[in-house]
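REQUEST FORM: STRUCTURE PREDICTION
Request ID: SP-0412
Submitted by: Lab K.M.
Chain count: 1
Length (residues): 608
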Amino acid sequence: MTFDRRKFLGGSVVTGAGVVLAGAGAPAAAAAPVGSAGGSGALGPGRGRDRYAFTVMGTTDLHGNVFNWDYATDAEFDDKDHNDVGLAKISTLVHDVRRAKGRENTLLIDAGDTIQGTQLAYYYAKVDPITGPRGPVHPMARAMNAIGYDAAALGNHEFNYGIPVLRKFEESCRFPLLGANAVDAKTLRPAFRPYVIKRMRTPRGRDVRVAVLGLTNPGIAIWDKANVQGKLAFPGLVEQAAKWVPKLRSMGADVVIVAAHSGTSGTSSYGDQLPYVENAAALVAEQVPGIDAILVGHAHVEIPERRVVNGTTGREVVLSEPLKWGQRLTCFDVEVEWRRGRWAVASVGSKVLNANAVAEDPRITEMLRAAHAKVVTYVNRVIGKSTVAMSAAEAPVKDVPVLDFIAFVQAEAVRKALAGSAHAALPVVSQASCFSRTANVPAGDVSIRSMAALYPFDNTLEARVLTGKQLREYLEFSARYYVRTAPGGPVDPARITNADGTPDYNYDAVSGVAYEIDIAKPAGQRIGKLTFDGKPVADAARFVLAVNNYRASGGGGFPHVASAEQVWSTSEEIRNLIIAWVEASGVIDPAAFASVEWRLTRDGVPVF
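STATUS: Completed
RESULT:
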């Protein structure tokens, strides 16, 4: 499990755009001030000094997207902004940049979350797994190898399918997977390569050494506890950057780029369960001297360019986050100049390129057409029928059948699992979130893809015991999702959700109890008329909560659940439990599970 650091540091030097594996005796190179963007990819005089410009391209949160295709709708991907997705589009953008700059003047890196997120990614992890005796090469590895990536940081979703799948993916990649803060749980030594150093060969023979340090998310220890506990540990990004950046400078790095699977907000979704910040990229820039630019990931937001002043040096660090799924490509334009016998950074700037401006690279689509076709056939397999159409469009503001269905399947699985146990007599309640407002179950034939659209994440199911008081506090925390809205007058459903940036997936509706959410009241005082079986829920009452592993492990920071007694869990994905239920039952009929158990009110008056 432990990455052999001695072997890594003792390797040979590869020139051109190759890897530099240098020892600690290499000359130091200090960070230089960052100015405005500039450079053309050539070497020339500047104020009496030689200058060289190059471009570092970056993607992040690709989440298994190769084609510009939506497996849930079985059609070309589209959204309200007409974005496009996939590595086939990214390949065209990369080719265009290399043609303009000269391939030898470019690098291509990624900031993580590569092998989970689409049905294509699921298919090659579970249906036709890459870990099988004659398993295929992962399509993401094939595409990224063909495009010519130089390095990729580990994302938290890399661990969703277990370490063997990740290691097999790593074996297939012709570029290193970097994770300086992914360490062996016992020895605390790097379990993956911490960094790579690339040599940019300039026309006059003075190579520029560009170090790429990879950092991943400490939340992996919580979110994928079942896969990593006792095997891997994940220290904080700031702490590990502070350890590695000086080493990279001492080994002769002229430029230091960080690929960080971590957002910029400085916040965490797992509360105080870990001492490390989840979204720490801006903190790394501010607190760790010697970094020139950071490719940001994890947050799924677009940041063309953000400049953060380092608190020690007073120098600016340039941050950029390209939009998820291959919708954007970041370009860091770096210019260095020769000063006192070494290269120093003169300027860094960044921008993002839009994938919807180019066509898919036919080299990538042809190479993976057969793999794509297998997945399309799989997701379109009919597994049952639905008596009516069910839509998630109103799920954020109303108790709709489609969320009741998810909660019902979860609760039924937990009841069956607990039958005959000491907890069999406890009432089961079940949480569900709206993962996609566009998800729907059609009337008539139901396929795997329609069920996958309802539950796009690879979460598994657990059962945790909560008291009535804890359940109320859980619901109060969830209800912070709503914008406080005064009584009287019309209500626009589009304007009352996502308060303080809370995403839809961090709002839980709970089935099995009835309650009201008074959005006229401040957060923390909204849950009223909480009843079970028609009677008020007592503080001392006990319930079994059917809950996904992300929430149970602290995802979203909900109170009590992470520390609650676990009475059952399964390694089967909730999506597969839903698919199996439909296959076994044959028919989805809301009459069997749907009811209005919660509603929004203002001073006791229903909003809708």
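NOTES: The mean pLDDT is 91.
Reviewed by: T.R.
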